[in-house]
Amino acid sequence: MTGGHLQIVVCGAGPATDVAQLIEAAQQRCWTAAVTATPSAMDFIETQSLETLTGHPVRSTYQSSPGTRRSLPATDALIIAPATYNSINKIALGLADNYAMTSVAELIGRQVPTVIVPFVNAALTARAPFRHAVASLRDEGVRVLLGPDDHWEPHPPGSGNERQKFFPWTAAFETAAQLAHESRPAAPGHA
Ligand SMILES: Cc1cc2nc3c(=O)[nH]c(=O)nc-3n(C[C@H](O)[C@H](O)[C@H](O)COP(=O)(O)O)c2cc1C
């Protein structure tokens, strides 16, 4: 499987602190990666070290740093992780109230292979709006890693700190790389 470019969107939840693990998983497979953060996620991440690791600015607002293009670069896969209750509900509804959500709305609309990995406790995943959001995103072709088949279950309220170290960064990358591979047109003569 050849490499590609991975767009990562991080939301405001504990595992955002560890997003370098996803970047490293991608780079080990010859992918490049860039990080976009929701405004809340900015409190969880080390912007400078992520920029050094990826070679790309961390984007959180519409303002781009000098020399950076405003439009989205060509993207082979999108991973939204950790995805919060708040952002998952917004993405399903098509809300675009910050730069990260606008990027996500556009990339899903462009049919970029997309994986969402929630980090949401069981009280919140039990809510009807959340269940409808996950069903609606899956209907739209978005891969939401959640439930027994994905070996990723919601944690009991108050146990996020213990669960954080099990966040499935590698599975998220493998799933996105597989989706990207499946969505690539077959090379001529290899039908
Ligand atoms: C320390 C801390 C930890 C949080 N952990 C979570 C979490 O694990 N899951 C979640 O859905 N929200 C969590 N939140 C709440 C979100 O940060 C909050 O809903 C925020 O509005 C999410 O914004 P975003 O979706 O734009 O990133 C946490 C908030 C704080 C301050």
Please describe the structure with a list of short key phrases separated by commas or semicolons.
5 strands; alpha/beta; 38% helix; binds flavin mononucleotide; 191 residues
Brief summary:
The protein has 191 residues and is α/β, with parallel strands linked by helices.
Can you characterise this structure?
The chain is of the alpha/beta class and 191 residues long. It has one domain (5-183): Rossmann fold (3-Layer(aba) Sandwich). The chain contains eight helices and five strands, in the order βαβαβααβααβαα. The protein has helices spanning 20-28, 47-54, 85-93, 99-109, 122-125, 128-139, 160-163, 169-183; strands spanning 5-10, 32-37, 77-83, 114-118, 143-144. A five-stranded parallel β-sheet has the order 2-1-3-4-5, with helices on both faces. Helix 1 links the parallel strand 1 and strand 2 (32-37). Helix 1 (20-28) crosses helix 8 (169-183). It is globular. It starts with a strand and ends in an 8-residue tail after the last helix. Bound molecules: flavin mononucleotide (FMN).
- Give the N-terminus to C-terminus distance in angstroms: 17 Å
Outline, from the CA principal axes?
A: globular
Q: How many domains comprise the coordinates? A: 1
Using the coordinates above, name the CATH class: Alpha Beta
Low-confidence stretches: none
Structural class: alpha/beta
> What about the largest sheet?
5 strands, parallel
Provide the spatial order of strands within the biggest beta sheet: 2-1-3-4-5
Number of helices: 8
